[in-house]
Model the fold of this input.
Amino acid sequence: MASLPKFSTILTWTLYFIPVYIFILEPLLRDSFPGLQAGYPDSTSLFDSSDAPGPGINLTDDSFISPEDGVPFTCPGSEGYQVHLLSREPLVMYIENFVSEAEANHILDKSVNKYTPSIVYDGQTERIDPSKRLSDRALLDRDDTIRCLEDRARAFQGWHPDLYIERMWAQRYNASGHYRHHYDWAGSLARGGDRFSTFMVYLEADCEGGGTNFPRLKMPAGKEWCRFLECERSGKGKEMGITFKPIKGNAVFWENLRPDGTGYPETWHAAFPVTRGKKVGLNIWSWYQPKRRNRGR
Ligand SMILES: O=C(O)CCC(=O)C(=O)O
Ligand SMILES: [Fe+2]
Done:
């Protein structure tokens, strides 16, 4: 019968194994199987800081992200918006006059010749599917107005270094245009990043219908909310959650991710069909991509 190794031999092997695991095996496993990582388990970890980029999107890819490239810009006029808190958990705020009339008109003018049909993304492929989403979208150049909005959106959220404003798109809905219920988040934080928050800004609202519906949010008590929310539907309306009326210059802001990095189910939302006229929305999405510890060192 083979004899068992001596205790001193096991101890020596263990002493050799520890540095091999720490410096070779663990980094190899972490890069090969990112899903095995602990994720973002506690509330302080979502906005923890460290010093190297994670593997999500390429943060210099300016077709997706608006990098802070130091290009100077001027913001005309004052920022006189008013904020109304609708829900703390998830955080949902209504912002009156987030975009001035001049800013909205400028973006409408600049986008007018740029629209192409909007696409939907199912996690693998992008395609046009008018049964889910019927609208046109236009990628906006980063001129002074857009840079001012990027800056405003970053300031509103406390200038966090791990939040990156995505390139902005105007979305145009003509009669029967709509966007079925969906989430803006993708559950992709463990793969590097996800959409932390959304500003849904109404640039043009010369329409009937076209409200932004959240079936899982509760109607707030104050009747003052009827300026911004549809209160007309009685009885039935309660089952339908809440619907924001499109009002030019105003915005709905919400956070998509919980502090542990998972998505809020309450942020399930839709653009109800426009039944007459035209609506143009502006999405300002903040991509959250934390830096990874112990990478690239
Ligand atoms: O237009 C709206 O009201 C909502 C649009 C939307 O949810 C989106 O573009 O992701
Ligand atoms: Fe959305």
Q: What stands out?
A: The mean pLDDT is 85. The chain has two domains: 7-32, 82-288. The CA atoms of residues 68 and 294 lie 25 Å apart. Residues 171, 179, 184, 200, 212, 269, 271, 281, 283 surround 2-oxoglutaric acid (ligand 1) (CB under 6 Å).
